[in-house]
TrEMBL record:
It comes from the Bacteria. The keyword 4Fe-4S applies. The lineage of its organism: Bacteria, Bacillati, Actinomycetota, Actinomycetes, Micromonosporales. Its cofactor is [4Fe-4S] cluster. This is 4Fe-4S ferredoxin-type domain-containing protein. Residues 294-324, 326-351 form the 4Fe-4S ferredoxin-type domain. The chain crosses the membrane at residues 169-187, 193-212, 224-242, 248-268. GO terms for molecular function: 4 iron, 4 sulfur cluster binding; metal ion binding. Pfam families: CdhD, Fer4_7. Keywords: 4Fe-4S, Iron, Iron-sulfur, Membrane, Metal-binding, Transmembrane, Transmembrane helix. The keyword 4Fe-4S applies. It comes from Rhizocola hellebori. Gene3D superfamilies: 3.30.70.20, 3.40.50.11600.
Length: 351
């Protein structure tokens, strides 16, 4: 088999595995990567050591003369690592020191992904290392335009979660209900029932990924409970129509209802637009930087007139400047409780 074809197949299998098992770490070796023919003025980018992320970033940076620092984030993607305390000041400092990048460039400026803002304290990075941090766009596909038009300025950018990405996440999110419900179902009702439950979990996860932004209730249990009731009632009715015995009706009703709850409460953890608002996840993952329901409060006397760093760094555009040129949280419902504004305020006026 030609090397190119073998590499293509290997890459495809790796992408498929990372899609299905996305909640597991897929680390690559941290360190320095070089693209093109960089000189002492070439930009230095930083990303997480999640294999899928590194491959996406490398594909874009291959067109530039630059350096890429891969930080030791435990093989977790940028957003989850940042919100979970695995992509912060310590990891950026480690990437700088391990790579020896100081010897390769004359400037001291790092370009970090925007979704690392909740975890990386840029003031502390500069204090410890002498390097200044600037944040690039949220989407890697927007990086070329930002480099050509705005680099190194911080520009406002709002995170999105389009249907294609939701479907990808839905495939990964289906793993947990498939395992949690499929294995017991197989032991209780036989392997065919186990496979059916596992398959239905993936189908429901993808369908839920498509429709959940349009559902009237808030993500998590408010969506999960009515979904469970609806699915449980429908599966019980179908089981009765199929002349299944009473035990079978109970089994399918309870199992499918539980599947609805599991999918609904797990999926927000995959979403960059809802994850930090899901209080159950904050309970399960106490390492997250902000407590459940956190809303930023601005100390106006400390706030710098006209400073809009918090406005631009907010991934949901929930911050703005008032008429007196002071920052304010004008959209509490849109706030992700992600902590980015707190981390990036230059005078610690937000808490």
């Amino acid at each position: 088999m030609p090397a190119a074809s073998s590499s293509l197949i290997t890459g495809g299998l790796r992408s498929a595995a990372q899609l299905i098992f996305r909640s597991f770490p897929f680390p690559v070796e941290p360190g320095l990567r070089t693209f093109g023919n960089p000189d002492r003025n070439s930009p230095v980018f930083v990303t997480a050591n999640f294999d899928h992320t590194v491959r996406l970033v490398s594909r874009v940076l291959a067109n530039y003369d630059c350096y890429l620092l891969i930080a030791p984030t435990g093989g977790v993607n940028v957003w989850c690592a940042s919100a979970g305390g695995h992509f912060g000041t310590d990891e950026v400092e480690a990437a700088i020191k391990l790579s020896g990048i100081d010897k390769l460039v004359d400037h001291h400026r790092l370009v970090l992904p925007r979704l690392a803002a909740p975890g990386v304290n840029v003031k502390e990075v500069r204090h410890r290392t002498g390097w200044r941090v600037v944040f690039g766009p949220i989407e890697i596909d927007d990086l070329p335009q930002w480099l050509e038009q705005s680099f190194p300025r911080l520009v406002a950018d709002v995170v999105s979660f389009p249907w294609r990405r939701r479907v990808e996440m839905g495939v990964g999110a289906g793993l947990w209900p498939a395992v949690i419900l499929g294995v017991p179902a197989g032991l209780i009702m036989g392997w065919r029932a186990g496979l059916a439950i596992a398959g239905l979990s993936y189908v429901l996860s993808v369908l839920f990924a498509l429709v959940y932004p349009r559902m009237p209730a808030q993500p998590g249990l408010p969506q999960g409970i009515p979904l469970a009731v609806m699915l449980g009632a429908a599966s019980g009715a179908l089981a009765r129509l199929a002349d299944v015995n009473l035990w079978g009706v109970i089994f399918w009703t309870v199992t499918i209802a539980a599947m609805g709850v599991l999918v609904a409460i797990d999926f927000p953890s995959w979403s960059p637009t809802d994850v930090c608002k899901q209080q159950l996840l904050c309970f399960l993952y106490p390492a997250t930087l902000a407590p459940a329901g956190f809303l930023p409060v601005v100390d106006e006397p400390k706030c710098i007139d006209g400073c809009d760093i918090c406005v631009k760094v907010c991934p949901k555009g929930a911050m703005s400047l008032k008429d007196n040129h002071k920052a304010t949280l004008f959209d509490p419902q849109g706030c992700l409780s992600c902590y980015a504004c707190v981390q990036q305020c230059p005078v610690d006026a937000i808490s």
